[in-house]
Amino acid sequence: MRKIILSVILVTILVLSFFSNYFLTANPVPAEAVKFDTGDTAWMIVACALVLLMTPGLALFYGGMVGKKNVISTMLQSFMAMVIVTVLWVVIAFGLSFGPSIGGVIGNPLPNIFFQGVGTNTAWSLAPTIPFLLFALFQAKFAIITPALITGAFAERIRFWAYLLFMVLFILLVYAPLAHSTWHPDGILFKLGVLDFAGGTVVHMSAGWAALAGAIFLGKRKIQKVNPARITYVLLGTGLLWFGWFGFNAGSAMGANGLAVQALGTTTVAAAAAALAWVFLDKILGHKLSAMGACIGAVVGLVAITPAAGYVSIPHAIFIGLFSSIVSNLVVSKFPKGKIDDALDVFACHGVGGMTGMLLTGVFASKASNSALVDQGLVFGETTLFFNQVIALVGVSVFAFTVSYFLFFIVNKITPLRVSEDKEELGLDITQHGEFL
User: Fold this and answer.
1) Treating both helix axes as pointing N-terminal to C-terminal, what angle do 231-250 and 258-284 enclose, rounded to 10 degrees?
2) What CATH number should be reported for the domain holding residue 248?
3) pLDDT tens across 275-291, in order?
4) Domain residues for 165?
5) Could you report the per-residue pLDDT of 37-72, keeping only the tens digit for each?
6) Which residues lie closer than 8 Å to 172 by C-beta, 6 or more apart?
7) Is 4 a member of any domain?
8) Structurally, how many domains does the chain consist of?
9) Average of pLDDT values for 131-159?
10) CA-CA distance, 123 to 401, in Å (whole number)?
11) Per-residue pLDDT reduced to its tens digit, 313-332
12) 40 contacts 255 by C-beta, under 8 angstroms
């Protein structure tokens, strides 16, 4: 049955992609007198490549943390996100995220199905100096890494085909509505005035809450404490993530401009401050200064600064890095691991880090850092933005967790999510893929 379904899907994609130009009408975003900037275009091509590099970096980051029997499977989960989500994005998910708004919560996918109207002669309204196609491809990389982030929570116990099905449903029913609501000019969160520069809600909070839902639904691993397979992989993965994150945050300025430089600066210092805070706190609590701790701390800082990168000053970015690292470190140490097996602490790092960053954006956002802001943060005597951030935090948290848990339930009804105890003990590399280190 599974082979028949897969064959039908492949044939359908082939037929629709071949004949799409004959029965679909292009509907480009209106762009009167478009004038592209070569510098902006060049930078965004580089930023697009940098963000894609983050997913192989994440594969190394997660792959080094799991046991040796599950390295290939864990890394392949991230790699397949690049494969599946890229095609899904072109076929329908981009339209759901950035198509004409339906009630401010989802886009109409029909005008841009199979990237119809997404070309090099028109532009997205909020990125007028680069081709529309470049904007769409840049956004695809954000969609790719989001389900890959979730995989750390249910590492070492999920069936691979079930994960692929969950990933497709997650992009369509969780990621796309959040992207539309937050980043589309007609989205409900955008119109409310919520600030999310590069993905605090859309990427990290959605992934964090989905990770928690997955950890709860799948239950605990048979053996929870395993030695990391390759801490050198973790170090290398962190380096690639940090490097790629400059495209993630600075690229979200949509041009080679002062805002991109500001985001580059805040990203740099927040990550460094967070890594410093993590290892210092470990030492204060009586632990050794570890490579793993330094890497996790840096990633938490990158997560937390993401929603704030283009809105806060350098000193405030240092505070965001320090504070978020301390909060996530304490959550990791206090998380009920005996009851909820979030294998690689995805919720504590990405979920909590994203929420901390969203709240602190509402505290520190300033017109001095971004002149386009309507409202400033709490430290500047204004409250509107902060409460908007709180509303978004609560709403996104409830939505992402509830829908993700429901998707795990549905997928499990279609095909079992969890491997058998025997296969879990043998390891997913050999039982799911017939490969081993």
Assistant:
1) 150
2) 1.10.3430.10
3) 999 999 999 999 999 99
4) 33-418
5) 999 999 999 999 999 999 999 999 999 999 999 999
6) 88, 92, 93, 96
7) no
8) 1
9) 97
10) 34
11) 999 999 999 999 999 999 99
12) yes
